Amino acid sequence: MRFLDGQTPATDLTYGDVFLVPSRSEVTSRFDVDLSSADGTGTTIPVVVSNMTAVAGRRMAETVARRGGIAIIPQDIPADVVADVVASVKAKDPVVDTPVTVGPHDTVATVLTLLGKRAHGAAVVVEDGRPLGVITETDCLGTDRFTQVERLMSTGFPTVEATEVEQAGLEAVFERLYAAKVTLAVVVRDGLLAGVLTRKGAVRSTVYSPALDATGRLRIGAAVGINGDVAAKARDLLAAGADVLVVDTAHGHQTKMLQALDAVRSVAPDVPVVAGNVVTAAGVRELVSAGADILKVGVGPGAMCTTRMMTAVGRPQFSAVLECSAAARELGKHVWADGGVKHPRDVALALAAGASQVMIGSWFAGTYESPGDLHEDGDRLYKESFGMASSRAVAARTAGAGTAFDRARKALFEEGISTGKMYLDPQRPGVEDLLDEITSGLRSACTYAGARTLEEFAERALVGIQSAAGYAEGMPQHTSWRA
């Protein structure tokens, strides 16, 4: 990356302070751009779901991995639950989506509770593993909440044999669903439910490549903190099947982090180890020397984080990523840009600055696939999100540790929002919708730079510095702005 006309920044820069300049390009199609990361994590798009309790769960991990990214399960989840989540994700099909399922004697209330867990808009009614029907929210309207599903379900639902998906191909399945004027089909194998496939899902599976481990299963990562028996916790995560370990604390450039990295590396010599957070080249070098393969960069840019306002500690994210990625590159290592992204342009800028991946948290919290329950605020749907240094997160992480008095003392000191409403975008309510938006913008940015890979993009990117007015000029106006 280089600055336009040799500009030298007088101050540290945020994503909003900079822009990408188009260059001569021989890349004629966005589909010619390879978005795979070279950092050893096996992802085919440079997106990591942040290890936030309100964001990264089994549904999110499965869905994002199917599209080429990876989710990191938070450190405050009990080891047995993490093992269950990892096993669940590893068992999922890399192409066919996992359905919401109910029994024929379940009630409308159960259906309405479960439909918001995934973006399909329908539940499959199953008995003894065999699909009996399909039920949607529309089917439930105007009915008593205790009405049983079997009275409302549609039995004339379209089915697709799993072998048809595997042999005929996704394009043929799409054409069949399109001709039948249906958006979703139930996938069966030997008469048993194997999943669901939507028309949009069929198209996506021809554009994205899943992030798969050496045995062809979906990838997933897990986080461990720097306190307690770190080696034992890391060993448990590896035994569960985690593909990436993230050693995580708000202030990564500290002695306890170096000790924790040494402990993790002693039991995990062969998996990528991520550590952070840091914002300086010095922090990168020390964590690499302690065993980190990838550095998590960012202090204070997250939507749920109050660190900068509480402590004045942090650094504008674009400059932090730029400096840390340069230091990591000298050592043959990589960085993840963690936090501060609000638009696809920010993802592109983080990668232009040298990041191998971008971690996204709150942006993904307001989707069907995040772990929380759906709530209504008038006619708008939302889920709750919270920062991982907030009193809510700290209380969950330290439950049962020490005395009640000790926990009460710790609760006095929080840095983060304990609850925030993350509204679902009616146009993009699922995480796959957001991935489409992000990767579309990123692919276009690469073509403007004349880059076919992310490595070429970081090398060729030409970046300019802009005023606040320059940033505002690039924002689209409402359709009635001249009225």
Descriptive report:
With 483 residues, the protein is an alpha/beta fold. The protein folds into 2 domains: 2-93 and 211-473, Aldolase class I (TIM Barrel, Alpha-Beta Barrel), CATH 3.20.20; 100-207, CBS-domain (Roll). Helix content is 35%, strand content 18%. The chain has 19 helices and 20 strands. The protein has an 8-stranded parallel β-barrel, surrounded by 6 helices. Strand 12 (244-248), helix 9 and strand 13 form a beta-alpha-beta unit. The longest helix is centred in the last third of the chain and has 19 residues, at 431-449. The protein is globular, with a radius of gyration of 23 Å. The two termini are 41 Å apart. The model has no long low-confidence stretch (mean pLDDT 92).
Helices and strands, with pairings:
Layout (H helix, E strand, L loop, with lengths): L1 E2 L14 E3 L26 E3 L8 H9 L3 E4 L5 H12 L9 E3 L5 H8 L6 E6 L2 E7 H4 L18 E3 H6 L2 H10 L4 E6 L2 E7 H9 L13 E4 L5 H11 L3 E5 L6 H13 L5 E6 L2 H9 L4 E4 L9 H5 L5 H14 L3 E5 L5 H9 L4 E4 L1 H4 L9 E3 L2 E6 L5 H8 L5 H8 L8 E4 L7 H19 L4 H7 L1 E4 L2 H6 L10
Parallel strand pairs: 1-20, 3-4, 3-16, 4-11, 5-6, 8-9, 11-12, 12-13, 13-14, 14-15, 15-16
Antiparallel strand pairs: 2-20, 6-7, 9-10, 17-18, 18-19
Helix pairs in contact: 1-2, 2-8, 6-7, 8-9, 10-12, 13-17
What attributes characterize this protein structure?
8-stranded parallel beta barrel; 19 helices; TIM Barrel; 35% helix; 483 residues; 2 domains; CBS-domain; 20 strands; alpha/beta; single chain
